[in-house]
Every structure is written in structure tokens, then in C-alpha cells.
Specification:
Chains A, B: Keywords: DNA-binding. Two copies of one chain form a homodimer. Chain A has nine helices and two strands; from the N terminus they run H-H-E-E-H-H-H-H-H-H-H. Chain A has 214 residues and is mostly helical. Chain A has a domain of 147 residues. The first copy, chain A, has a two-stranded antiparallel ribbon with strand order 1-2. In chain A, helix 3 packs parallel to helix 9. The C terminus of chain A is likely disordered. Chains A and B meet through helix 3, helix 5, helix 7, helix 8 and helix 9 of A and helix 3, helix 5, helix 7, helix 8 and helix 9 of B. The structure holds a DNA duplex (30 and 30 nucleotides).
DNA sequence: TAATTATGGATAGCGACACTCTCTACTATC
DNA sequence: GATAGTAGAGAGTGTCGCTATCCATAATTA
């Protein structure tokens, strides 16, 4: 298949495909001449995946490349595919380390220990969480921090279901792909569901009706 | 207080404060001369909040403005503050309506009906969710869509806790503020916790150890 | 009081990012 | 043989979130 068909089948414009190839999200095609190359089904899948991570998952192109490289590389072990996926899918943030941040970081460590979670010290989610909790402190929302326990419990049961579902896939490659997809797209899914559930719950508790169109 | 102190107390650089004022995230100070103005505690709070929404919550400046305007406007009723907050906090996305999208939208409607949720037809989370589910379909991950039930259940219990916690705040203004903060910052908190829990669970199920530093 | 520094407001510029356009030397197809 | 498509590379574009500069004026300091 040539680039026009690749574009047609994925819905990605040709210039964008070329850009993604330059950025390494998609490998070059198999060369058949000075200005000719052939693309296969793997290109289609990989391009679709790239698009999903960037558009729906909201990942920076560089992070998407890392994740795609991970999936389509041979020689990964199932023991570190998840960790590596999380590294790739958590774009770096810069933060301010002040008192509130130190307290928040301690709170994160405490939570992880209390739940008996085994988490590598380098997991970037630690830092992201500490950032968010520190911000909540600075905004004077620390009286709500007991909600954190509920959040953690929720996350735990969710992760349990997810990991079990993923580990049922025998093929390591399919597993890696599913991990990346569900880690990246699970966030917006969960966020949307939370908003929908919030509105439904609020309608009940606060007595609002669902008729108003805001 | 003048702008230098405002900057010092919030940690936001003066040029950025000026930019935020231009963009309407923070109102102008009380004028006392041709080139003098006075700022108060509300400016401090509002600026801190703006910073949190943009930096940690990752909101576009325009969305943050909407949310802040909502919080600091008088004359909101508790019946629609949540709806309006959700509108403000869900940045618009463009999407492709194809077969997969139609199916996904139907799936969303079905889920909402099945759960007995009362959700306004215009809630932007409906569309975001349909987008994500359609993408999962296009990626051939629809065999995992039964996970959606778990996600929904999770979201429901979470929303329940959140709405009860928020409604305990008597003051309407404090309620509106808490809703905006927790809607925006809850997403990264939840996402981080999910990643941490995933790693912990994966270590157990897949037998990996937590010693490797990836 | 004179020099320095700060202020509010407006306009312009900057760097990152994700494309998008253009060009060239070819190749395929009608 | 004319037209359209192709790979690859470089430059250009639009948006976003700041950041720098400038000006007239006000406050602070020597």
C-alpha cells in the first residue's frame, strides 16, 4: 500500500503522516525505489494508535513516540512493560518544592505504605500526585483530604479489574498494546464518567432537575 | 496591596499577572490614580486558583476564565453551579462522526439509562466519553468494553462521596469553589492513584518485583 | 529635592508545539 | 506523452501561554 491508501484507511492527512514519520511515531515504509515505499498493516495499526494517543489521550507527540516504540519493540518482558508504559505516558512536569509540597510528598508515601502498595520510587505518578495534593493544600482545601482515602480505594479496585483483564491476554505484544491504550484512554473515560455520575448524584442530593439545559 | 506584593504572595510573576488580567482571569484592581491600583485578598485567592487550574489542572486559559467567572459571580443557584462548572471545565473537542462514533454514543446513552442517571443531554462529558469509546472501538479494543461497567460503578461511588462532601459546605460560594477545584484537580489525582495502584497490582499478579528502577 | 525604582496599561515579541506547505527529483498511471 | 502521485527535506503557519519593552506617572530612597 502507498501513502494515499494509508491516509484513506486511517483518516490521517498525508502531510501529518509524513510528519509522524519524521518524528518517529511511525516507521518508514519498505523502500522499493528512490521515491517509492510500501506500507503494511502494521503501519495502519500504528498510525491509528498514534492518532488516538495524541488526539484523544492528549499526549505530546514525544510521549506518544516513546509509548509506540515500547509497544512495537521486541524483547520487552512482561515485568516491566507496565512501568515503562507509565513512564512514557506521564509527561514530565516542573514543580515548586516548598513546605506544602514536602507535606504532600510525605502524605503520598504514607498512603502508599498504608495501602501496602509496592510502587517503585521512580514512578512519575508519585510526583504528579504530590503536585496535585500540594496545590490543594495551598488552596486551603486540605480539609477535604480525607476524600483521598476514597479515591485510593476506588483506584485500587479499578486497577485490580484492569490488571486482571489485561493479564488474560496471552500474547505479550497484545498486552503491551492494551496497557498503553487503556492507560492513556482510561483517563478521559474515567473523567467523563465521573462528571456524568456527579451530575446525576447532585440532581438527587441537591434536588435539581435534569430538565434545565444550562 | 500593589502588584509586587500580589506577585510575592502567590508566586506568580508580574508579567503573568498582567497577562491574566488582560485575559479576565483576575479582575483589575481598584484604581487610585492614573497608574496606581490596589489589590485585595480576593485577588490573591483568585490568582492562586487561576494558577492551579492552568498549571495543575491543565486547563486552557479561556476555560479557567469561565470557571473563575462562575465562582466569583453572585447570583448563582446551587442547582446549576455544578452543571455550569462542568461546561466550563470540559474544553471543547472536535470529533469525527462515523459508524464507530454513533455506536459509542448509543452505548453512552444506554449506560446512562441503565444506571438511572439523570444527566442533561447537553453535558459535554457525554461527547468526551463517546469520543473515547469510539476510539477504543476503532483500535479494536471493544472486547474490553465490559470494563466500562466497572468504570461506571467506580465513578458512581466516587461521585456519591464527592457530592456528599461538597454539599456539607453551607456557603454557596465555598461550594462553587470546591466544585471547580475538585472537578479540575480530581482528574490528575485520580489518574495518578490509578497508575500507582496499577503498578502495585501488576507486581502482585504478574509477579514482578518493586526493586527494579526501570 | 533629586535620583531611582515601581506601577499600570498597551503593544509587540518569543518559544514550543503540532502541524502544513512547498519544492525537487523521480515514478506510476491514464 | 501528459497528468497525477510519491518520498523526503526544509521552511512556513497558527495557536497558546507567556515575556519583554515602552510610556507616563507615582512612590521611595539618598
Amino acid at each position: 500500500m502507498r501513502i494515499a491508501e494509508l491516509s484513506r484507511r486511517t483518516g490521517v492527512p498525508i502531510p501529518t503522516i509524513k510528519y509522524y514519520m519524521r518524528e518517529g511515531l511511525v516507521p518508514p515504509g519498505e523502500r522499493t525505489g528512490p521515491n517509492q515505499a510500501r506500507y503494511g498493516e502494521e503501519h495502519v495499526r500504528r498510525l491509528r494508535l498514534a492518532r488516538a494517543l495524541v488526539e484523544v489521550g492528549g499526549l505530546p507527540v514525544a510521549s506518544a513516540r516513546q509509548a509506540l516504540t515500547l509497544i512495537f519493540s521486541s524483547g520487552i518482558s512482561e515485568f516491566d512493560v507496565l512501568g515503562k508504559a507509565q513512564y512514557a505516558l506521564t509527561p514530565p512536569r516542573e514543580h515548586t518544592e516548598d513546605d506544602a509540597w514536602d507535606e504532600a510528598a510525605a502524605q503520598v508515601d504514607d498512603l502508599i505504605a498504608r495501602r501496602g502498595w509496592q510502587v517503585k520510587p521512580g514512578n512519575p505518578a508519585r510526583r504528579t500526585l504530590a503536585d496535585a495534593l500540594a496545590t490543594l493544600r495551598r488552596l486551603g482545601q486540605d480539609d477535604y483530604l480525607d476524600l483521598l482515602e476514597t479515591y485510593a480505594e476506588t483506584a485500587e479496585s479499578l486497577a485490580d479489574t484492569e490488571v486482571r483483564a489485561i493479564s488474560r491476554r496471552g500474547d505479550l505484544h497484545a498486552m503491551a498494546e492494551a496497557i498503553v491504550i487503556w492507560t492513556a484512554l482510561g483517563d478521559p473515560v474515567l473523567a467523563s464518567l465521573r462528571r456524568l455520575a456527579q451530575e446525576a448524584r447532585a440532581a438527587r442530593v441537591l434536588g435539581g432537575t435534569a430538565e434545565e439545559t444550562a
